[in-house]
Amino acid sequence: MNKEFFRGMKEQIEPDEEQVEELKNKLNNTAAVSRKPMWIGGVCAAALCVAVGAGLFLSDSKTDKNSIKTSGSSSAQYNDSWSPDLINRNGNGSDENQTVAGGETEESIVDSTHDSKIDNGKWTTWVYPWGEGVPQAEVPQGIGALIAAELLDQQEGYEALADMYEGLKQMDALLPAAREKVNAELGARFAELCQQHKFFYILGSGPNFSQTYAMAICSLMEMQWQHCCYIHSGEYFHGPFEATEPGVFYFVQLGSGECRPMEERALAFLNTHTDTVMVLDALEYGVGEVPASVRSYLEPIFFYAMSCELRAARGKVFDHSPEIRRYMGIEQY
Length: 333
Prior knowledge:
Mean pLDDT: 78
Low-confidence stretches: 30-88, 93-109
Strand order of the largest sheet: 5-4-6-7
Largest sheet: 4 strands, parallel
Strand content: 5-15%
Number of helices: 9
């Protein structure tokens, strides 16, 4: 995915000005989007960004002026008051039954889903590649960041647009060494702690919180059947810190952006009130070399990749492949 891709889309599809204004009013009234700072990160953000982008400058003749709808990989999240007829879907081909069923009556779908079950010629689809060696600009986290950056640039100018493209290239460059380092330094210990603790907490914040959430519910609960819970580093002091005591395991995602002081505050408390803390510090893995203007938006890419390595390390010790499911796509739900 490159600049020509986005420029080509804009040239081919004329925006509906009435739709733009109506959507802007909706977003302003509901405080749905904060563009400055523009928090971009994670799969969830990719889905939202594609949807907003579709509404603002990917409109086609089929799309009603109120059209925007987003849905996650396995559950439909619709706002019926918007009466949309364009859906963005994003997922990794796990179980799409609910989403497909929800979209069967729709006229147009922008599908950015790997191994898509709706890429059958009936809807407009956009299927991303998936696998080792695929550039970050070609998968959801990079796609979402680029769409949001290009959208902002085309609407009002975004001075960090070049940094966004360069930052994605730098993420591609640093991830191989980061994977080796996390396996060498944290992998075995993480698996050991999972053996010792049937339950633990994962802390993170800012754009990286998308990966705090994903590490807990996807990498560990879904793919490893590991009991755990995610906590926002700021919310930690709104109550959860009262449960902190020796013997309770905490995994901390320490970012390099604006939210780092909040994470360091939580970590400082943990270091004096429990005896089991593991820290994954992005600055120790080369993320600090990414341009500061876009680092916070791209950092979730790093935490996602490291979560994949850690879940694999656990899986080896527990003899539990991340591909195993006992309910998803098997039972009716």
